[in-house]
């Protein structure tokens, strides 16, 4: 019965930064791996980053060195996006234990 809600998306110029946040509501009984995925127009959904209950993170090749995933609790996770590129434009989705958020749009353009 957990639900996820993303926030923080928007428009930014190339080289800029955005921070996405995800909050889980409902019954949270334990820590689970959480992650961010994205889907650009005409492309498949892809992993951006994930983080385990002990803080180990994994990143997609295209965002390594630019994005940082973090969590504040069992209910929250954030994605700091730096040095954004036009190819980062996509809808970004939060994921936790089989549950997906509705997504938040990120647009990178001049």
Structural description of this entry:
- The structure is a single chain.
- It contains no helices and eleven strands.
- By secondary structure, the protein is an all-beta fold.
- Strands 2, 4, 5, 6, 9, 10 and 11 form a seven-stranded mixed sheet that branches.
- β9 and β10 form a beta hairpin.
Short structural summary:
The protein is mainly beta and 110 residues long. Helix content is 0%, strand content 51%.
Unreliable segments of 5+ consecutive residues: none
Overall pLDDT metric: 96
Helix content: under 10%
What is the radius of gyration computed over CA atoms, rounded to a whole number of angstroms? Answer: 13 Å
State the main characteristics.
globular, four-stranded antiparallel sheet, seven-stranded mixed sheet
Write the topology of this structure.
Blueprint: E1 3-7, E2 10-12, E3 18-25, E4 34-39, E5 46-51, E6 57-59, E7 67-71, E8 76-81, E9 90-96, E10 99-100, E11 104-108
Parallel strand pairs: 2-11
Antiparallel strand pairs: 1-3, 3-8, 4-5, 4-9, 5-6, 7-8, 9-10, 9-11
């Amino acid at each position: 019965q957990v639900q996820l809600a993303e926030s923080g998306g928007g428009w930014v110029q190339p080289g800029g930064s955005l921070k996405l946040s995800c909050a889980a509501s409902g019954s949270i009984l334990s820590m689970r791996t959480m992650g961010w995925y994205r889907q650009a127009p005409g492309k498949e959904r892809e992993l951006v980053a994930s983080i385990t209950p002990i803080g180990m993170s994994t990143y997609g090749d295209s965002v390594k060195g630019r994005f940082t995933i973090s969590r504040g609790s069992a209910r929250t996770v954030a994605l700091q996006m730096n040095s954004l590129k036009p190819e980062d434009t996509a809808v970004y989705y939060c994921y936790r234990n089989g549950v997906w958020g509705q997504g938040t749009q990120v647009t990178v353009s001049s």
